[in-house]
Amino acid sequence: MSYINTEEKGSARVMHKDYNNTAAGWANESIAIAVAELLDSINKLYDKNPERFENSETSFSIADFGCATGGASITPLRTIIDRVRQINPDKEIHVYLEDLPENRFDLAFMTVQEGLKDYKGVFIMAAGKDFSQQVFPNKFLDVSFSSLTAMILPSHPAPLDDNLFFLVNTENAETERGQKWIEGLTKHWAQFMHSRKAELKKDGLLFVTVSVNHNPNKDYQIKENEFYHELVSQVVKKVLAKYNAEDKIASCMKTTISAYKEHFLDVCNSIPDMHVISSNDFDVKDIFYHEYVETRDQKTFGKYVTGLIQGWWGGVLEGGLAQQGMDQETIKEISKEVFEILPEFVENHINTYPEYYNLLTLAVVRTD
Ligand SMILES: C[S@@+](CC[C@H](N)C(=O)[O-])C[C@H]1O[C@@H](n2cnc3c(N)ncnc32)[C@H](O)[C@@H]1O
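Above: query sequence and S-adenosylmethionine SMILES. Below: predicted holo structure tokens.
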């Protein structure tokens, strides 16, 4: 008897196995900006509760929610560990890598173990569970960290067939579809916050980064909307049509929403005993676009951006089609075709490619 539902092949949320090589460098640009905020929050934690850091009898526990294959976990983990060890070189540290059960934890372990191998007394473990629910025991964690993950919803709150993900803007925010997406985010984010609160010790820190949209959209966000809209209509729809699978388009889109900063903050402020200690947003450089500006090498740009998109969407495309009951052979053909066409599409759409993305860093402390 099997305890695993083998009917559900793939998942529409986890990252591609090549995420570290294709997308983690791009994501790490946001980490480079966020670490200063993270360090500042850890210092505030120390000021509030020095005993937590100075006592060598207890361990210090850190969880990374949505670790994927670990390529973007090392810098934030090292930032926290270095600060803790600066205060107390003997402090034992427990690191928990967290993601959905179907995530490639093998790759995450290899990457993070390698990235932290020079520390003694740092123990790396993992938890595979949907983080909408409580993952760790009550009052268990000192620091919960999550980068570019909490804006991924468990499912599509309303059908989406014209963009790879939902970007809130002044035109769609008040529509029925926009309202459903915002309600979906509010529900998911509130669940996330309540679950993280339960796991945090008193004075524990939740540090989250999410991509957000400005109200009204910044110029590069207007471009972003156009770029991904055209990608769907000119590439994805055409390939699906070739396989008589146009009706499956909505299942291939991400469940990600790029909402306004207020949508996240309003929920944080409604959770009792969770106090926002900082919330800032930054324009993060798209590393591939900025390299292209230097080199003017369109081919390399097309290749890198295709890799990036495959990193965060390839698994969703294949998983979404599998959930619709499509056979694996056809799925592989569709995926291959889409990612073969993409480099040229990207090369021809540099003028609408977004030069930046907007990142919200949120630091929240449990006060009770
Ligand atoms: C865009 S990747 C971000 C990876 C990495 N943190 C970074 O900064 O590059 C999002 C990750 O969140 C995970 N994820 C999405 N929804 C989740 C959920 N409900 N529970 C646990 N993990 C989730 C995905 O599987 C994926 O690995």
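The pocket of S-adenosylmethionine is lined by residues 13-15, 24, 27, 66-68, 72, 99-100, 103, 130-132, 147-149, 152, 154, 312 (CB under 6 Å).
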